[in-house]
Amino acid sequence: FAMTLREEAVEWLRRYPMAVLLLPLTVTILLCYYSGKPIDLLRDTEVDYLDSMQVFRVVLTDYPRERAKTVQAEAEVLGRVDGGQVKAAKGKVFLYLQPDSTDFARNKEALMGMQLGDTLLVRMRVQRGGRLGEFDYGNYLRMQGIVGTAFVRRTQWRRLSSVADVSFWEPRRWQRALFQRFRVLGIEGDELATLGALTLGYKDDLEPDLRRSFQCAGAAHVLAVSGLHTGIIYAVVLTLLTIGGHCKPMY
């Protein structure tokens, strides 16, 4: 009897494979609709320490990104130091760390070697960001969950602790490793940045002019949906439609 039910279930799923996709999608939509607790990123970025020079304890939440004269680091605020005591504070910020000018290249390389999870003590002034022409950069950051940005000189920060190694399963680790593999193969410049964005979703090396070129050509969407994302979705859909290999793929 159990085998009969299983065979009937498999046969039904083979005849109506879209039900496997529509059911969880429908449940997810209903949960989002009736939960009544939407995530308001703009409200979450309201903090009381904007535009004032203070000392903060932060932890890196992503790998550093190389810029022309600085190194950009995304960090989560853990607290702020006031009178020798660490008081509660929260928010995610973009740090622009300035390498030491006496040995710029070597110091910049050291900054790029920092890992996500490293804890820093930083003296900085976090600013929201203004408008760049018609583009409201500050509001854009808030939509990404970022409180603001801060320019940090070499004498205004120090590392408190460093992680020994990144988790083996950390997605950004594999993304960076594959991107570095492209470098080893001799790909560089705009070709490297475009290949990384299309195949891995790695957009850190995309120059503003290159982004603008994609926008003018009406092809900016290919940077938002990378080949890696498409491949993952394809693998999931194929697994669902073939019921984990029990049914033949429908080509």
Describe the structure.
- It is a single chain.
- This protein is of the alpha+beta class and about 250 residues long.
- The protein has helices spanning about 1-15, 20-35, 40-45, 105-110, 135-145, 170-185, 190-200, 210-215, 220-225, 225-240, and strands at about 55-60, 65, 70-80, 85-90, 90-95, 120-125, 130, 135, 150, 155-160.
- Strands 1, 2, 3, 4, 5, 6, 9 and 10 form an 8-stranded mixed beta sheet that branches.
- α6 (about 170-185) packs antiparallel against α7.
- It starts with a helix and ends in a 10-residue tail after the last helix.
The whole-number mean of residue pLDDT values reads 78
For the sheet with most strands, the description reads:
8 strands, mixed
Helix content class: 40-55%
Oligomer: single chain
Distance between the termini: 32 Å
Number of helix segments? 10
Attribute tags:
globular; eight-stranded mixed β-sheet; 21% strand; 251 residues; alpha+beta; two-stranded antiparallel sheet; single chain; 10 helices
TL;DR of this structure?
Helices cover 42% and strands 21% of the residues. It contains 10 helices and 10 strands.
